[in-house]
Amino acid sequence: MLDLGCGDGELLAVFADHGAQALAGVDLSAQQLELARHRPSWPPPTRGSRGAAARRIRDRHRENPAADVTVRATVAGMTTPAEVFLRDYHDRKPEAASELAVAGHIVGDDRTVYEVFADHVGVPVRVLDLGCGDGALLAVLAARGARTQAGIDLSPGHIRRALERPALAGADLRAGRAQELPFADGAFDAVVSFMALMLMVDVEKVVAEAARVLAPGGTFALGVGGPGEGALEVFPKIARPLFAVVPEDRRVPTAGDPRTRTRAGLDELLAPAGFEPVAWHEVLIDVSGPPEQVWQTCCETYYQMDSLDETQLTGLRTAFKVATRDQVTAEGRLPAKARVHVAVTRLRS
Ligand SMILES: C[S@@+](CC[C@H](N)C(=O)[O-])C[C@H]1O[C@@H](n2cnc3c(N)ncnc32)[C@H](O)[C@@H]1O
After folding, report:
1. Are 90 and 154 in contact (CB under 8 A)?
2. Residue 333: how many CA atoms within 13 Å on its side-chain side?
3. How far is CA 209 from CA 57, 88, 173, 187, 198, in A?
4. Which of 69, 81, 94, 147 is such that its CA lies 20 to 30 A from the CA of 306?
5. Where is the Methyltransferase domain positioned along the sequence (predicted)?
6. Does ligand 1 have an atom closer than 6 angstroms to the CB of 90?
7. What letter would DSSP give residue 124?
8. Is any atom of ligand 1 closer than 6 Å to the C-beta of 207?
């Protein structure tokens, strides 16, 4: 028996218990394979734990009926460990991305960051969102008059949420990788990507795909993260040393090309695919509030928080409280601002 995308070997163990012989598995995650090899109950678990394992798998697939489909896509599409992490993370927390983006207000503007971003896109007739999450940005563009909306995201959980938005009832939304777009050449007038390109591996391929599916003269608009202010400047300084010492088997696989975060880096990536130099704008999101609320925002901003154990989390929380104590205002608010850079370019005709 061969299990494609076997993860930590849970399913293989169940089959072994039913008498299957010559078991084999493949998975793109070296971490998962290590876990499979070192199963304390390997060879096969006892009958009792077999029942529990089978129930867990069944329940997971019930919660996420697209999970097995994705596993197949994973193997076919050469998904990386970082992408497997992102897909699973966002499937577990399908509300995480857009809730965070609309948690604060834009400095000097009381609209959401998606509204401000959409100003830079204009009103395309046909728009595609790379790493569309739960469709928050596409819904804004649809409300402004974009007639054809399409999106792609690693997380089937996000795609399901996006499909529930009335504004996206007719949208073409797919679970998949931005490196391999299932859309025709020249199919869109605009391609957008908000806080997603900076997480993608093989970013030259993503840029080449964006150029392929854009019509000549089409717009490519990107939102990428920049350094935060106030508590959002303090937090990474104290959290990063902790992330660096997380044991290998719990570490969050990192991805993303640092060039996607700077204007010069983006120009370097985009020019070979036929894009003009980017126009560069800055948006500040004020997420100030009571210290506990700001702490929660900081936690939700970093995927690596997923890898900390209880002791590390408590230590970080204490260190954060001490480091930001003097910044709390007389009204009990801790100042914090998130920075997003908006880069806009056009495909040369
Ligand atoms: C921080 S979230 C932002 C989501 C959305 N743009 C929003 O503003 O709510 C990043 C998203 O990028 C997606 N993503 C990362 N790499 C991807 C890839 N190679 N192809 C498609 N989606 C990807 C993740 O699954 C995640 O939903």
Report:
1. yes
2. 8
3. 35, 24, 17, 11, 16
4. 69
5. 2-40
6. yes
7. -
8. no
Q: Ligand 1 mean position to 305 CA, how many Å? A: 18
- CATH code of domain 96-346: 3.40.50.150
Q: Is the CB of 155 under 6 A from ligand 1?
A: yes
pLDDT in tens, 78-95: 689 999 999 999 999 887
pTM of the entire predicted model: 0.80
CA-closest residue to ligand 1 atom 2: 97
Token pair in block for residue 315: 């230590």
Residue 97 Cβ contacting ligand 1 at under 6 Å: yes
Using a 6 Å cutoff on CB, does residue 140 contact ligand 1?
no
Q: Is 199 in the pocket of ligand 1 (CB under 6 A)?
A: yes
Q: What ligand 1 atom has the least distance to the C-alpha of 158?
A: 27
- 136 Cα nearest atom in ligand 1: 9
For ligand 1, say whether the CB of 157 is within 6 Å of any of its atoms: no
| pLDDT per residue as tens, the chain (349 positions) | 777 776 667 777 777 667 676 667 665 554 455 455 545 333 333 222 333 333 333 333 333 333 333 333 343 456 899 999 999 999 998 877 788 778 788 888 889 999 999 999 999 899 999 999 999 999 999 999 999 999 999 999 999 999 999 999 999 999 999 999 999 999 999 999 999 999 999 999 999 999 999 999 999 999 999 999 999 999 999 999 999 999 988 999 887 999 999 999 999 999 999 999 999 999 999 999 999 999 999 999 999 999 999 999 999 999 999 999 999 999 999 999 999 999 999 999 8
Tracing tokens 């199963």 back to the chain, one arrives at: 39
The H-assigned helical ranges of 29-174 are 30-37, 47-63, 67-76, 81-92, 96-101, 113-121, 136-143, 156-163
Q: Whose CA is nearest to atom 10 of ligand 1?
A: 196
